[in-house]
Write a structure and sequence with these properties.
Layout (H helix, E strand, L loop, with lengths): L20 H39 L22 E6 L7 H12 L4 E7 L13 E2 L2 E2 H6 L7 E4 L11 H12 L3 E4 L3 H8 L6 E2 L6 H7 L4 E2 L5 E4 L2 E4 L5 H13 L1 H11 L22 H8 L6 E5 L6 H14 L3 E6 L3 E3 L5 E3 L1 E2 L8 E4 L10 H9 L4 E3 L8 H12 L2 H10 L17 H17 L1 H17 L1
Parallel strand pairs: 1-2, 1-5, 2-4, 5-6, 6-10, 7-8, 11-12, 11-16, 12-15, 16-17
Antiparallel strand pairs: 3-14, 9-10, 13-14
Helix pairs in contact: 1-14, 1-15, 2-7, 2-10, 4-5, 7-8, 10-12, 10-13, 12-13
Length: about 475
């Protein structure tokens, strides 16, 4: 009688796999090696996530909610016949999308410009001073505020979220009543969320156009254009493109001569009434790595006090905060002698009084072309903190975004300044950006982070070795 041992029910031989001690040891080594790699990669990812969260938290500061009680009188820029309402979001607003078009329109006596929001509380601005709105949406509905002829819509933190429902509803109301709409940068995302862009041509920031094409295919999105005008709606490319976009609307409403005059004041590179709307098509590239690393490794970056004063130009404020907010090269905080300042054309900004200012590494003065132009009180305050006070300007005292980018290049490096300019869609071919210095902060922190990740990855091996030594000790 033959034995069935070693056969399956089908009569095929059944192979028993015998695991030798050597094979078991190899499997354990492979497992611990994989665990070590996984832990190291997880540590790197966690550090990057934490860095991005810190940078984001420093950029999105919620201002105190106290309405307009105790703030200076907040009035429109003038009594001009053409009314412009510049909208502020509840979820955080890109400051330059508001400040730069505001100065464009407010520089003409033909226009009466005010800021407006869902609530009277100071509206948060990404990386910059909160803005105290002139009016609320209900003020327009009730007749307390003049009905706008133009509505400027900036990029906000939650363009299609519930936080901005009131904004979207009010924009639809004004558009339906015949107002011109100017969407700046990713203000086009807000407009797409309202539905008023459906069937129209539009543009936005180059980094979001891919998303917008997929999420709102009913809009005819264009790239490589400074602005797109379709009927009563004008949309612009990134951030600073709001300046030529606003000048185009001004030309339509107040005439070419007035737009030409204000355009000379704004000094936007290459702008003219007849200039082409075409701009280079942008995308993320290796040259943007310095800015990306700044965003992921924000620890120990400098803190810069942006010294503000009554009468400061809106575009000067915008340039100071925008280049640092986009480059992540430093944390910029608004400092003033008092809790608020009123800009050149009447916008009220919420600041940090000098007596409550955090520790800073440097003070910059927007609007100051030379050191002697810096407000004396600001210079004295910087001296009391034993930190330098610089005129926020480029070579030969150039101001605005030109000066901001030159200053950024000088105090960081040229690559960072070029990448920041790309993020805000600002032309740089006319600039001679200095090479600047080389900061060791980011490389050192990256090396320390990698060493920490390696140490965390080594924990399984250390634990395994400790267990083995303990077992060997018990056998003796």
């Amino acid at each position: 009688m033959k034995s069935n041992a070693g056969r399956t029910h089908g009569g095929s031989p059944h192979v028993h796999r015998i695991e030798t001690p050597l094979m078991a040891s190899r499997s354990r080594r492979l497992f611990y090696s994989a665990l070590s790699v996984a832990l190291s990669l997880t540590a790197v990812a966690a550090l990057a996530f934490a860095g991005a969260a810190v940078a984001d938290a420093q950029s999105h500061v919620t201002p105190p909610q106290r309405g307009q009680q105790g703030f200076p009188a907040n009035r429109p820029s003038s009594s001009g016949e053409i009314v412009v309402a510049v909208v502020l979001g509840s979820s955080g607003t890109v400051g330059s999308d508001v400040l730069a078009p505001y100065e464009v329109f407010a520089s003409s006596p033909e226009f009466s410009v005010y800021t407006i929001a869902a609530q009277a509380d100071p509206a948060p601005v990404d990386g910059g001073p909160a803005i105290v709105p002139t009016y609320t949406f209900e003020d327009v509905r009730s007749g307390r505020a003049r009905k706008p002829d133009v509505v400027v819509v900036p990029a906000v933190g939650a363009p299609e979220g519930p936080e901005e429902t009131a904004m979207r509803e009010w924009i639809v109301e004004q558009s339906g009543s015949g107002a011109r709409i100017l969407g700046v940068c990713n203000g086009s995302n807000v407009l797409a969320g309202t539905g008023i862009l459906d069937g129209h041509k539009a543009t936005g920031h180059w980094s979001r156009l891919g998303y917008l094409k997929k999420s709102h295919p009913q809009v005819h999105w264009s790239e490589g254009l400074r602005y797109v005008q379709d009927g009563m709606i004008t949309t612009t490319a990134g951030v600073t493109s709001g300046i030529p976009g606003a000048l185009k609307v001004m030309e339509d409403l107040a005439g070419a001569d007035e737009a030409e005059r204000v355009g000379r004041l704004m000094n936007y590179p290459g702008w003219s009434l007849t200039a082409s709307e075409s701009i280079p098509v942008q995308s993320f590239a290796l040259s943007d790595i310095p800015v990306g690393l700044n965003a992921l490794v924000p620890w120990f970056r400098p803190t810069i006090a942006v010294g503000l004063f009554n009468g400061v130009g809106e575009a000067d404020v915008a340039s100071a905060f925008e280049v640092y907010n986009m480059s992540f090269a430093a944390r910029a905080v608004p400092i003033a002698a008092t809790e608020t300042v009123t800009t050149k054309h009447g916008m009220v900004l919420l600041t940090i009084p000098e007596t409550r200012a955090p520790q800073v590494d440097r003070v910059i003065a927007p609007g100051a072309a030379r050191g002697e132009d810096i407000n004396r009180q600001l210079r004295d305050w910087a001296a009391s903190r034993n930190v330098p006070a610089d005129a926020f300007a480029g070579a030969d005292g150039v101001l605005g975004f030109d000066g901001a980018l030159e200053y950024l290049a000088q105090h960081t490096d040229r690559a960072t300044a070029l990448s920041a300019a790309k993020m805000i869609d600002y032309p740089t071919t006319h600039l001679n950006l200095p090479a600047g210095g080389t900061s060791v902060r980011v490389p050192v922190l990256i090396v320390l982070g990698l060493l920490l990740a390696i140490l965390i990855g080594a924990l399984p091996a250390v634990a395994r070795s400790a267990v083995r030594r303990r077992a060997e000790g018990q056998m003796k």
